[in-house]
Specification:
Distance between the termini: 37 Å
Mean pLDDT: 96
Helix content: 40-55%
Low-confidence stretches: none
Shape: globular
Structural class: alpha/beta
Largest sheet: 7 strands, parallel
Number of strands: 7
Radius of gyration: 17 Å
Strand content: 15-25%
């Protein structure tokens, strides 16, 4: 059985990714920051499905906690052949209203966390000559979003980091790919009004919002496809082409 760490597993997309990978036979380490109840419920659901999963609490912006997270997961599960960097947060508002603390908070949550997790995961993957990393960005990292400047910048950074690591680690047999979802039906988009959602549907060629389950299948494809690296998969219904 292969082992994978999914960050942000207590959220909508992370939960769906963890369940999809468990169904595919992966043993899943479930990272969460605050929502212990949701993470532990997910762990129990994976076990009910006959899979293997275990929840771990960690603040991914803290280097020491990232080290403790990986050490615990490796102790319990073994070599982590997969890593899905899904955790993150958003800040919405006018760029001119954003404080330096706001900016740093978004950068740490959405980009620094990916750096810390990749840096910790890679040495073992390189030694084993195999491994797969999926970094979750956003379509706003590709094209930018008004009133989400820091989020857009951080997610663009995730795309750049993905491509650089794919080139650097490819000779060691390690693949690094990126998933850039569009508007997905998750709690993170719960602040959007019905009018906003209807407008986004009208702008989307497929005329609907994506689901966490569709996102999970795309993440699993990137994780498992063995001749794919350095790619950005836009799962957005055609909103960004």
């Amino acid at each position: 059985m292969k082992n994978v760490l999914v960050t942000g597993a207590s959220g909508g997309i992370g939960r769906a990714i963890a369940l999809e990978l468990a169904r595919r036979g992966w043993s899943v380490a479930l990272q969460y920051r605050r929502n212990q109840q949701a993470a532990e419920e997910l762990e129990r659901e994976i076990l009910r499905l006959g899979g293997s999963g275990k929840a771990y609490q960690a603040d991914l912006t803290d280097e020491a906690q990232v080290e403790d997270l990986f050490a615990a997961a490796e102790r319990d599960l073994g070599f982590l052949e997969g890593l899905v960097n899904n955790a993150g947060s958003a800040w919405k508002g006018l760029f001119t209203d954003m404080t330096l603390a706001d900016w740093r908070g978004v950068m740490d949550a959405d980009l620094t966390s990916v750096f810390l997790c990749c840096r910790r995961a890679l040495p073992s993957m390189i030694r084993q000559k195999r491994g797969s990393i999926v970094n979750v960005s956003s379509m706003w990292g590709q094209v930018g979003a008004s009133c989400e400047a820091a989020y857009s910048a951080a997610k663009a950074g995730v795309i750049g980091l993905t491509k650089a690591l794919a080139k650097e680690e490819g000779p060691s047999g390690v693949r690094v790919n990126c998933l850039a979802p569009g508007v997905i039906d998750t709690p993170m988009n719960g602040d959007l009004s019905q009018e906003d959602l209807d407008a986004l549907r009208e702008e989307t060629p497929l005329e609907r919002i994506g689901t966490p389950e569709e996102t999970a299948k795309a993440a699993a494809f990137l994780l498992e496809q063995e001749f794919l690296t350095g790619q950005v998969l836009g799962l957005n219904g055609g909103l960004v082409i």
